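Model it.
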Amino acid sequence: MRKRTALKLIAACAFAASLAPALAQEVIKIANIVELSGGGATAGTNFKNGIELAVKEINAQGGILGRKIQTTTTDTQSNPGIAKGLTQKAIDDGVFAIFGPVFSGSIMVSMAESRKAEVPNFTGGEAASITEQGNPYVFRTSFTQATAMPKVARYISDTARLKTLAVIYVNNDFGKGGNDMITKALANSPTKIVASISTDAGQVDFSAAVLKAKQSNADGVFVYTNEEESARALRELRKQGWTKPIIGETTLTGQKVIELAGEAANGAVGHVGLTVDAPIPAVRAFKAKFEKEYKYVSDHNGMKGYSGIYVLKAAIEKTGKLDRKAVAQTLKNFTVTTQQSPGVLMDVTFDGKGDVDRDSFLVEVKNGKQEVIATLPPLGKK
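Modeled.
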């Protein structure tokens, strides 16, 4: 009797094991490895919410190649070491793709794990060095600094016509990369950088940094810090009576920065790769859906997560099979249009390194809101 029972148990286990691969293919596993606490909480939460909104829509439409998407979300706590461990865990769980981290310092560490496992890894990080490592499995849903800074530099030198500039930047991979790239982009322009002022991630007091900018007598200031620090810098600039141009990138004029800085944000000008206020129907529709779902207005990070899922969907469908390595190859030199996939929000092209090129915008904060003041064409567009 015992022998018969044991044989039945062995047979049952064998049958279950035979089903495991088939069951694994019933869903497409995606891991959200994002900053939900710490200095990156604003960016990570928006990125995650954008992803989940896109997944909800795609699953309601039948999924990808007939399979639903299943997501799991974990918090890096804005810590690169934790991000690396969570990436390894996601790989052990058999995910098809990874989204995040958003912070450049974290993805720089964690993407080594997804590369070894040949898992496509999407990030909102902007440090130029992310895609300069020759990693064939990392893809950016935001501009690289090498793409964004030439556009900002043209505005500073040709439109704002500033002769001198002070730069306030955060001393991490993101900030140092931005400082290097804006310096390079302005090197042969009429604008001279007269002060380069380093600040710490999570810094609360910006009085000394702003004082240094004032003492430089620069015609304007370029602020390149994380969202929460950007709001503090704006408040301190206004507190110390700064009336000259304040210019930055995406992290200076995001919705969360505007909310935290209040009236101090008015007048700030930023180059943004993505904004929910872009005069594009698909973007406006996304803004309304996101606000209805989450009861607040998305920033650019929400758009990065949302559009990234639709890019992955388009790449899988073009590949025609759930093959991680083949999908990563498809994404190289890959163009997706809104006519093909409205969820990408704007026509986008990935180059051979995993960087994106598309339209971008100059915005100015007016009366507590972003207002698009110019649309800038892709760098690759002649």
